[in-house]
Amino acid sequence: MASGRSGGPRKAVSNAPLSTRGLPACEPDRACAWIEKYCIVPKGSGAGKPLRLRQWQRDIVGTVFAEQMPRLAGISLPRGSGKSTLLAAIALYSFIGRGEMGASVVCAAVDQRQAEIVFKTCVRFVELNPQLEKRIKVYQDKLIHPASGSELRVYPADPKSLEGLDFSFCVLDEFGVASRDTFEVLSHSQGKREQSTLACIGTPSPMGTDSVMWSLREAYLANPDDTSTRWIEYAAPDGCDVDDEAAWAIASPALGDFLHIDALRALLPPKTSENVFRRARLGQWVLESDAQWTTRAVWDATCDPDRTVPDGTPIVIGFDGSWKGDCTCLVGATIERTPHLFTIDLWKPPANNPDWRVPVERVEAAIEAACRRWAVQEVACDPSRWQRSISVLAGRGLPMVEFAQSPNRMIAATKSLYDALVDGDITHDDNPDFAEHVTNARAKDDGFGTQVKKVTKHSEKKIDLLVAGIMAHSRATWLASKKPKRAKVYRSVG
């Protein structure tokens, strides 16, 4: 892991103690005063000047460095709040500012890139202050303070690499997307020292109630008098409108300071999805059952009920097949940079009939009929449960293309359709089932991107037409970006 240096210590360092003259005795106040005395802003607003903690930052430092320091501290902040800089300052104080002999400070993050951000900020703090620079050795992945035998080391949050640590202080960045295994390995590293703290910071997790961040938050709220655990949260009031700028100011204390309000205005839904905006910018917990993928208004805005797709038009078909519980459907998409989506066929499971099964032969016949009517370039389909039909239809000359609904592929395809709806780069029919399936869909964000899902696994509110539309749109826009080829027309034999 690189720190911005090619490696190795630069020169001999001084063993003289840092001056503590004028620092308060009270631990929270002392920590804030030390940070302001020795940390210089490395970039952005106020770069090159001493770091001046705002009151809300003092509150966070006071939560971590209380007179009775907690074993666990959780901090929930919206994005853009300068948390990596504050985290680095807290880590550096724990490393050298507290005067502890043999301090072991760990900076962990969800991946190597994020871990480097915090560590590089620590390195810049050292480089910018001659008093720190002449006392600390800087290596590629660690800082050493020879006078106290203390070490600050950076790790990606891989549970295997974190086994066996004996830290006095650990910061876990991007806590919202850290795995439970990582959190538990770090938590169980404590107990060997009379005092040690695991401080976790992040934005509300896209994994919702399945996240370790949610678990820690709920544990604290259920027992706020437990001094071993502390929690501090910055969030907009529940129920606020997404464009309520007064609520933004409550959620983001840096707004109007070093967080610029025009940046948030530029990201307002529908430019970005509402649930992501609420999590990332308002600090709100958005549970998947409440996180609608898009609204009916956004869908209706791109509706073109008068457009028809003439026979022989080159199209792609998205085929989402079920077995019994969900719908099976075919959605067409014209092959152009602004595609038109339209419903070809839909098979719904009847209510109160658990014995119903999808009529496979009728589905196959409908696909063949569609290929005779239009110049179908691809029938994009998930092979799950339909491998036999795909093989049969391909054997008859139909352009069957497997579109496995893997997370990576569906995240990209879902984003493409969402962006097209927001930007007006798509039209679609006025089929009421299609509109219903779109508005039934909930956004599932796993930290890497957004997919669509039902409200619950067995919900009667179906989303299959949307899934077929996502596949059709993805393939149609991809084909539209390529050099045109002669249209393929399927005709039955005999």
Helices and strands, with pairings:
Blueprint: H1 27-38, H2 55-64, E1 72-76, H3 83-97, E2 104-109, H4 112-128, H5 130-133, E3 137-138, E4 142-145, E5 150-156, H6 159-162, E6 169-172, H7 180-187, E7 197-202, H8 212-222, E8 229-233, H9 245-251, H10 261-266, H11 274-282, H12 296-301, E9 314-320, E10 328-334, E11 340-347, H13 360-373, E12 375-381, H14 387-395, E13 400-402, H15 407-423, E14 427-428, H16 432-440, E15 442-445, E16 450-453, H17 464-480
Key terms for this structure?
disordered C terminus; Nucleotidyltransferase, domain 5; 2 domains; 35% helix; alpha/beta; 494 residues; 17 helices; Rossmann fold; elongated; 8-stranded mixed sheet; 6-stranded mixed sheet
